[in-house]
UniProtKB/TrEMBL annotation:
GO BP: any one term: response to oxidative stress
Database matches in PANTHER family: LD42267P (PTHR11475:SF134), OXIDASE/PEROXIDASE (PTHR11475)
Keywords, ordered alphabetically: Heme, Iron, Metal-binding, Oxidoreductase, Peroxidase
Source species: Halocaridina rubra
Name this polypeptide is given: Uncharacterized protein
Signal peptide feature range: none
Gene3D superfamilies: Haem peroxidase domain superfamily, animal type
Molecular function GO labels: heme binding; metal ion binding; peroxidase activity
UniProt keyword annotation of Oxidoreductase present: yes
One Pfam family hit: An_peroxidase
Binding site for heme b: 275
Residue ranges, annotated region (Disordered): 150-170
Organism taxonomic ancestry: Eukaryota, Metazoa, Ecdysozoa, Arthropoda, Crustacea
Amino acid sequence: MFLSLIGHYYPLFGDGHKRTETGELRVDTLPVIRTQVEIRGFEDSILDCRACDSPQTVHPECFPIKIPQNDPFFPPVNISSGQPFCIPLTRSMPGQLTLGYREQMNQVTAFVDASHTYGSDKCEQQHLRTFKDGLLKATPNPLRGKPLLPTESENHECQAPSGRCFTGGDTRASEQPGLAALHTLLMREHNRVSLKLKEMNPHWSDEQFFQNARRIVTAVNQHITYNEWLPRVLGWNAINLYELNLLPEGYYEGYDPYCNPTVLNEVGIAFRFGHSLLKPSLERMDGIFAKRDPPVKLSEHFFNPDLLYQPGMLDEIIRGLTTVSMETLDQFLTDEVTNHLFEDKKQPFSGLDLASLNIQRGRDHGLQPYNEYRALCNLTRARNFDDLRREIATPVIERLKRTYAHVDDVDLFSGGLSETPLHGGLVGPTFGCILGIQFRNLRKCDRFWYENADPLIRFTDPQLTELRKVTLSKLLCDNCDAIGSEQRSAFDLPDPFLNPRVNCHDLPGVNLELWKERVSCSVGRTNIDIGAAERISPCVMCTCTKEG
């Protein structure tokens, strides 16, 4: 907790609200992240690790965080019990089959496969399906808008007054309204695509509609992640260095069946850079992009998505996400997540500190100090704090000196967030290195990557050309309730010259007519059934395939 207090407590003054070139829309739901599975107690109960002595009195896998005497928010002593006050944390479940170094389980699939929408295993997927027309389950909108996510009443984390939270392919679908809105749009996109496929191929089965729509939405997910999101996170120099450029045409020939797509444990920390970008509230914007009051305060809406039932609320949140600047990526986090994360309003000081949790989680997973990863990523291994000056600003180094006894003690989360961003990117060189290696593997190791050339599973060349047109802006236009315009790049702030808002109809989209199943091929005046071959001249024999 002391490390969070000194190194990550959000300043009340300074340049924390400086506008950036990238909008607040961080699609946590698009890229993959390593999500740990916490150890459970008797009969799968959640361990109560709030007591500072819980490793001895509750379970040895409790890993609570002690509150220092000088914390400006949390009391060092529990007011009701008189015992020392701690923030609860349960260790991640080990997943290795044999004795040796502890390895944690990943709760989601490693690949960029839209598991946030479809689930990470067959059981989850079946729970989300209607098994009619290939559609995903949805909740009818009581205000005649487009459907919302399905709901469940058995979520123990749900804080909604209605008692019902949304469910999706990822357990965080209701974590906060911005995420819930994005999960909703991706569910709508799947159902929009599936219904369009039904119009063109009414003879298909439910399974064909579902799997083809899933394949298209997964490709959309991959393209937006690598084409729009990653360049803004890493910068183009790192995109080139780690071979993350997408192809403008043709097929990707880099698939390696022997490479390891497993998510690096370090990614579970590096990917948390986004916590620094959070603002205390989500701004709302009306149809003419004027602010609506009140904004959506994060601490009041963790696992409470009820406001999305209000008329126009989802669109207002999306407009705000694409219009209002995010926070600067630095070592500071808003106190909405350092003091009030998942807070129970009926219980004082029941919130968590996200920065402390991130640091403690890295230690739980046995990650090496920041200095080790500097060396692995071809930076100079620091012998003292002053050796960090090329990558970290002097005032930040002074904060690190007050927090850590030696440069080798600096945690990966603290050191990585403290670095000056790469040119054109958000993260510094160490987080950039970790993420660059991971996303290179996620493309190179994925047999079902949307650009892959495998003739048994690939998209046709015309289909691939269409998928390369997709942008997040068009996805928002297609699936919000009543958004009529959007800037060309939803990840960048609107600008009348560099990034103007345009009518949604003027944004290029995917022509799904190219997924209409062929029953024959026409060559001149000759019709050839699929799978058949016909001689169309003395020297030319043509075979009709699904690709033409």
